[in-house]
Amino acid sequence: MNLTASDTQRLTRARFEVKAGSRLRRPRILAVAVLCLGLAGYAGMYFGAALLAGSSSNAELRAENIELSDRLAQAELELAVERAAHAELERQVTSLQGEVSDLDQQLEFLTARSAAR
């Protein structure tokens, strides 16, 4: 092929643009799509495993919550019984203090009476 001076000038004056060929465009899109699907699958497996681990932890926490609720109900019942017993004992102490006061008055009376004789 013989190039003349006019051919060389025409080649140097022309603007060249780099365009992706249509034969490379589809494989790139396919590669990007496969990569995105692969990343999405990996993320799904990673977060799915975390959710499964979380659900077993969630079940353990629920069981512990039920156990603690039962223990709390038992403790509240024991506290109510103790409060009732304490109130009854206070009532008895007040009653006995009244009896002691009455007996002290009777003793003073008898002591004063026997001193007068």
General description of the model:
The chain is an all-alpha fold and 117 residues long. The chain has one domain (26-111). It contains two helices and no strands. The protein has helices spanning 5-13, 22-116. The radius of gyration is 50 Å and the shape is rod-shaped. 0% of the residues are buried.
List the helices and strands and how they pair.
Elements: H1 5-13, H2 22-116
**Unreliable runs, pLDDT <50, ≥5 residues?**
none
CA distance, first residue to last residue: 163 Å
* Helix amount: over 70%
Oligomer: single chain
> What's the number of extended β-strand segments?
0
SSE pattern, N- to C-terminal: HH
Main sheet properties: none
Mean pLDDT: 83
> In DSSP terms, counting alpha (H) and pi (I) runs of 4 or more, how many helices?
2
Tag the structure with descriptive keywords.
89% helix, 2 helices, 117 residues
Summarize this entry quickly:
The protein is an all-alpha fold and about 120 residues long.
